[in-house]
Each structure stands twice: as structure tokens, then as C-alpha cells.
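Action item from last week, closing it out:
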Amino acid sequence: MVNRLRSTFSRDTIKDDAVAGVVLGGQSVPDGLAGGLLAGVNPVYGLYGYLFGMLGAAFVTGSEFMTVQATGAMAAVVADVDQVHGASDPERALFTLAILTGIVMTVAGVLKLGFVLRFVSNAVMVGFISGVGINIVLGQLDDFTGYESEGANRLARALDLLFHPLEIDLRTITVGALTIALILGLERTRLGALSLVVAVVVGSALVPLFGWEVAQLSDIVSIPSGLPLPKAPLFSAIPSLIIPAFSLAFVGLVQGAGISANFPNPDGTYPDASQDFVGQGVGNLVSGTFQGMPVGGSMSATSIVTSAGSQTRAAQLIAAAIMSVIIVVFGPLVDETAMPALAGLLIVVGVRTVKPGEIRAVWKTGQVQAVTMAVTLVLTIVIPLQFAVLVGVGMSTVLFVIQKSNDLVIKRIVVVGTSFKEVDPPSEVGTDEVVLIQPYGSLFFASAAVFENRLPAVTPASQNSVVIIRMRGRTDLGSTLTDTLGRYAETLQRANSKLVIISDSHRVQVQLAVTGVAASIGAENLYESDEWLGSTMRRAYQDAEEWIARNAR
């Protein structure tokens, strides 16, 4: 740890890291409050999550630049967790949720479970993230307009607002709209990421300047004048928080994996995604211990700190120090933040979360992907997000199975002199002919029916023929596929024809034996290929021609 501190706080990089740290620290205060607001919890817990999540992960992530803070997607998931809003001790339930999320993330990193994320389709993630962006916007309309809408969910409340336009408070919406305009305008200047801070400050300043009655942060909470002390988790809430914790961990890890893949370390190498998982887990453990909400790798915060010139992890530590000073020294001023200003900031975040280009790309990819994305998006809007995440994972698994089961091509190999050529297989097995079949693609249990349907059909005219199926490269057939082969062999035998199987795997040979397929087709019709490509296939083909010739006499 001492050596890492020395290498981090280097004279060569400290100036750049200090500038990046000031930018990130200043921006993280309104962003942290907005994160807590988005999660529907005390905004102070969003502030603490940003501070302690970033601090806890700084020395543990594999990435020098990954900034661990509360993300919009994770905050939206927290907003749908009933236990952190209506439990007997909702605050400790929130902290416990952060700790549980940290445990799941840490275990995933230690066990190097990053490969699991590969089974989540891009269509599901685009639909989910787009739905989260829409949820963020819909969830801020009350604070942005000053009208407390009614409805069972965010969509219903947005419709209620649409039917009551005269209930909108003009002063409230003016503060929110000005904040959005300032963010969009100032971010193109040298202020860059600090435009968020300036926009929220200017928007909030309108309230006392004109004496407007607009909701302020002080109406719902007061920023403490010191940093929080550790709090023990609420053990009785753990069973009800397990599913939300897994959902939050999954969302955080997916977003963190994107950072690992897009932000190389200063030496040009890409960080270990599993180590980044551990870092996010430790960030959650520290955040939950010090009264913060769940956190994860933040793409926006990581982009901010790198674009501001960060060279090492010191930037995140300096950012944490800046946040601490603002909380302790300027807490009373932070209390005066206007709620519509924070809502305007979150609306910008929500709109930018939706990526039209990615939606169009998935839509054009294919009907299955388009439907999957659309269903995930709709579910994300209408059902609690922690369940929408699990449904999305389930849909990814089903989509994977469907794609793999249909990703099967069968070719016929024709022997021409000393060469081979591939052609489409015949629809039926003829008379006195050798049909050499080569399957490509997955042959797991779900594709067995597809494989059976694509084999040449056996008809009464399929007399005295041999079908050879070449299974080279297959190490596992499974009982479902061996049953299919057994049925096909019996069908051929009834037509006075036979099935021959070529395999280079001893395991496949054993599976054919134990399932009775080997006995059914005869040991002489099982060929075990060697390292010479085509030699066994040619031998089997010649043997088949001789068998046909003998039986034709």
C-alpha cells in the first residue's frame, strides 16, 4: 500500500491529477444529490455513496481510471426496491442493500465470473438501458414541474401530468428549464464537466434572488456538517434484499465491464475486468458501511476524470477530499439547492442514457432482436426494475438457446477424385447412393430437433443406401442427440439402408455405446478418425460404396 501511494502521488503527475480531482469532486456533489433523489432516498445517501464508493474502490480496481459512484441505472433500480422506502428501518435497509451488492460483486470478481456477462444479449441491454433512461426522465417530472401527479407507476403519473397542464408551476419549471439550458450551453465551453455545478448553482440562485416559492433540498433534508459514522447492517432485511442485490450487482458489473473495455491504463494495457468487479464490490462495502447507497463503475464519471487530465488514481482521492470539504464547510449552502435544478440535471442524464443509434442498429439486426429489445424496454418501464433485470437475463438466455438451436447448417460432402466439395444436402435419401453429411453449428439438446428435420428424409425409395454423418470436432453429443441418431438409424434399417458415424472423440464413442446407438448400427459402422484430415472419411466412403455394391447383386 505504501509503495502504491508513492507511485500514485508522483511529482510528474500530481498537477494533472489535482485538476482532474477538483473537476470530479465539484461535479460529484450535485450529481450525488441527484443520484439519491433519483433513487427516492435521502439525497445525502447519494452524496455519501459517491464519496465513499469512489474512495473505497480507488486502490482496488484493476483500472487506474474507473470511478465508482452511483449510476443512473442502479439508482433507478433502488427506486423500485420497496424495502428501502417502506421498511421499519428503511435507511439501514438501504445501507444493507449496498453491502449485499458489494458482497455479490466481490465474489463475482474473486471467482472470475466475468464470462457470465457474455450471455446477456446486446438487444436486452439496449432495451434495458433505454428503459432506464425513460424512467429517469419520467421520475423527475414532479420536481421539474411542481405538480405532484398521481398514478401506480412513472408512466401513469406522466399521463396524469399530461392531463393537468394548468397545474404546472411556472417558476418551478423555469428553474428546471434554465438549468438544462445552462448545462447544454456551458458544457461546450472551457467549464466542461463543471457546467453541471454552475448550472445547478445558477438555477438554484434564482429562488432567493426573486423570492420564488420553489422546493429546495432543505425542504426534505439538511446536509450534516460532518462526515458520517459507520452503521451496522440490518440483518433482518437481508432475505428480502437478496434479489435486488443480485439485480444491482448485475447492472453495475455490466456497466463496469464497459469501462474496463474502453479505458486502458496509462501503460496501454487493458485492466482485468474481474479485478474491477472486486473494486466495485469493495466500493459498495465501504459505501454501505458509511451510510451510502449502492454504487458501480460510472462511465460518465470515468469519462470526466480522464478528459480532465487524470494520470493516476490520485485524481479520485483528491476528488473525495474535495467532496469532503464541500460537505463539511459548505453544507448549509448545499441545502439551498433547488429541487427543479436537480431534476433538470437528471433529465439531461436520462435523455442521454437513451441511445437512438444503438436502438436503430438492434432494430435492423433482425426480428428476434428487435422484439427482444422492445419487450425488455416496455417491461423496464412498467414493472419494478430489479425484476426487469432478471427478466432481461432470462430473455437473454432464451434468445441464446433459440439462436444456437437454429444456428445449424448441414452440408453434403461429395468425393470427386482425390478432392472433396460441399453442396446442399438432398431432401431425400435415394437408391444405391452414399450421402456423406457434415453438420456445422451447435448440436446441443435444443438443436437436436432442428438437426433431425434437416437430415435427408428416408422414403420407401431409399433402398440400399448409406448415410455417413461426420462428427469430427464434436466432443459431446448428449443423450437427446444420440436418441435422434438412434431413431434415424432405425429408419434407415427399415429401408434396407444403414447409418455410419465418423468421430474423432473417444467421449462421443462412449456416449454412442452407453446409449445403445453403437449396438443398433453395429460396431463396424463406427469410425474413429485420426489426425489425417479426410483419410477416415475417404475410407468410410469407399467402404459404403463396397457395401452398396455387394447388396445390389
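Closing note: DSSP finds 24 helices and eight strands in the chain.
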